[in-house]
Amino acid sequence: MTENVVNRTELADHLEQYLEVTRFADYGPNGLQVEGRAEVRRLVSGVTASLALIEAAAAEGADAILVHHGLFWRGQDGRVTGWMKQRLAALLRHDINLFAFHLPLDAHPTLGNNAQLGVQLGLVTEGTFGDKALGVIGRPVDGPCTLDALAARIGTRLGRAPVVAPGDGREVRRVAWCTGGAQGWFESAIAAGADVYLTGEISEPQAHIARETGVAFLACGHHATERYGVQALGAHLATHFGIEHRFIDIDNPG
């Protein structure tokens, strides 16, 4: 195991500055959510701070866990019972730090979920839209394509077939995307000039909007679209501080 080590506070400060946390009014706290041991040599990253991820990180000897979906969200009643008690107990028992970054990780221009999904799918970013530039618009790197070809590429790269609301079948020249649960941004993507919009989830209205506007909507999976930013951020930390990093993917069909 590497001898390189970073102090928990130094790691937290670097992450908060690097991701520009203060720019965002978020749905929960960004940064250190659960305090563990003071020194970090081994970092595990994952999408969500589930019990399965915490236990896998403990088995790896992790000093810290880095996730996109942390434990604490607006609207929770604050009681530590059930699944929350199990997750917190596991973190405290193993003295593991938990770092979580939500919107700041989505929006980072190179390591963020949107940027990294574009890399995975061969999409070139040309601009942004929406609050805090959380939506991204661009084009396929290899030129215009059919919707079927784009959906097939997504299925191959992400390991799951997207749910497709096909629109009017137009050629795909302009692609807008926002990872996770951003189905409510569909109309903003249309206004930005997209031929197709990619996100993680679909709700009832989006199929109707696709039919009526002609702009296709692809739901590619919340978890599936948000696996890549946290990996890139963990790799950055490993390089910057010389610590060990491993991404652990806890499968999730949602």
Strand content: 15-25%
Order of helices and strands: EHEEEHEHEHHEEHEEHEHEHHE
CATH architecture grouping of the largest domain: 3-Layer(aba) Sandwich
Report the sheet with the most strands, covering strand number, pairing sense and barrel closure: 6 strands, mixed
* Quaternary class: single chain
Q: Report, as a whole number of angstroms, the end-to-end distance.
A: 35 Å
Looking at CATH, the homologous superfamily of the largest domain is: NIF3 (NGG1p interacting factor 3)-like
Q: Which class do the helix and strand fractions yield? A: alpha/beta
The side-by-side strand order for the widest beta sheet comes to: 7-8-10-11-12-9
Number of strands: 13
Tell me the name of the CATH class of the largest domain: Alpha Beta
Low-confidence stretches: none
Rg calculated over all Cα atoms: 19 Å
- Report mean pLDDT, rounded to a whole number: 97
Description:
The chain is α/β, with parallel strands linked by helices and 254 residues long. It has 2 domains: 96 residues, NIF3 (NGG1p interacting factor 3)-like (Udp-n-acetylmuramoylalanyl-d-glutamate--2,6- Diaminopimelate Ligase, Chain: A, domain 1, 3-Layer(aba) Sandwich); 113 residues, NIF3 (NGG1p interacting factor 3)-like (Udp-n-acetylmuramoylalanyl-d-glutamate--2,6- Diaminopimelate Ligase, Chain: A, domain 1). It has 10 helices and 13 strands. It has a 6-stranded mixed β-sheet with strand order 7-8-10-11-12-9. Helix 8 links the parallel strand 11 and strand 12. The radius of gyration is 19 Å and the shape is elongated. The two termini are 35 Å apart. The mean pLDDT is 97.
